[in-house]
Amino acid sequence: MEEFKSGFVSMLGRTNVGKSTLLNCLVKEKVAAIANKPQTTRTQIKAIVNRKNSQIIFLDTPGIHKPKSKLGQTMIETAFGAISEVDVVLFLIEATSKEIGKGDKRILEKIKEAKKKTILVINKIDLVKKESLLKLIEIYSKEYPFDAVVPIEANSGKNCEILLDEIEKLLKVGPAYYDIEEYTDQTVRQLVEEIIREKALRLLEDEVPHGLYIEVEKMEESLTKSNKQIYNIEATIYCLRDSHKGIIIGKNGQMLKKIGTYAREDIEKMLNAKVNLKTWVKTKKDWQNKDDIVKKFKN
């Protein structure tokens, strides 16, 4: 009988490279917010993949970028700090890259320092021809002796099982750290906040989302008259400027209504129950530099 393996895996990559999409694909649950905007992930999210002979715990870290606030600095510290805690590093790059950019060089330096088992994961392979892909693999392989190179397409799930197989090979024999029914260590409140933020990121104009911070103020569970479970949730969407507040609310409140509707649908699927979701919008200027809020994004 094959021995059971377990271990922790960190995902590193520049902003918008597809880490959160890959995480959700591997776990087959919505754990991380996905949007076509950089810096979507602000905290280190643990996600758990239970396989027949292994348990893999993923730390999805914020994308590497040039910080412009205390929040940005905290995000970078979280990302690089995760390397020392894990057994395997997934270094995620885009297949469309022609060379090793500044951000990727910085990540490579940290990987070299840590001397961790590392898999190079090349995402978005549907956008390039095979020749370009092979050339990119050659460029990166000269820089570091990766334990494996796995080209993937996270949106469709192509080669995600192959990636899990490669990770499993690198893990040591060990126990299951979490119950096999669990897939994240985030609280339900945190997951609800992530879902609301994801919908806002998807629907709003480019200049607004980075300044968004969601806080669930109230979450109560009760029963309907027909004895069915229902959650009453109240959440506030904080933004940096009064001008953003108007954009988030939208004409006659239509944008806020749309964010709320899409979020409620996902929350109901996650909780497998009816949800009554109320959302408000408030301005909290320069919250990205306020210690009491930034500390919530530290682990």
Question: How would you describe this structure to a colleague?
Answer:
Helices cover 34% and strands 25% of the residues. The chain contains nine helices and ten strands. The longest helix has 18 residues, at 254-271. The two termini are 38 Å apart. It is globular. The chain is of the alpha/beta class and 299 residues long. α6 (188-203) packs antiparallel against α8 (254-271).
Helix content: 25-40%
Calculate Rg over CA atoms.
20 Å
pLDDT under 50 segments (min length 5)?
33-43, 63-69, 71-76
SSE string, helices as H and strands as E: EHEEHEHEHEHEHEEHHEH
| N-to-C CA distance | 38 Å
Write the CATH architecture name of the largest domain. 3-Layer(aba) Sandwich
Number of continuous helical runs? 9
Oligomeric category: single chain
Average pLDDT, all residues: 79
Structural class, by secondary structure, is alpha/beta
The CATH topology of the largest domain: Rossmann fold
Largest sheet: 7 strands, mixed
CATH class of the largest domain: Alpha Beta
Descriptive key words:
single chain, 299 residues, alpha/beta, Rossmann fold, GMP Synthetase, Chain A, domain 3, 2 domains, 7-stranded mixed beta sheet, globular
Q: What's a concise summary of this model?
A:
Helices cover 34% and strands 25% of the residues. It contains 9 helices and 10 strands.
Which helices and strands, and how do they pair?
Layout: E1 5-13, H1 19-27, E2 45-51, E3 54-60, H2 70-81, E4 88-94, H3 102-114, E5 117-123, H4 130-141, E6 148-151, H5 160-170, E7 172-173, H6 188-203, E8 213-223, E9 229-239, H7 242-249, H8 254-271, E10 274-283, H9 291-294
Parallel strand pairs: 1-3, 1-4, 4-5, 5-6, 9-10
Antiparallel strand pairs: 1-7, 2-3, 8-9
Helix pairs in contact: 6-8
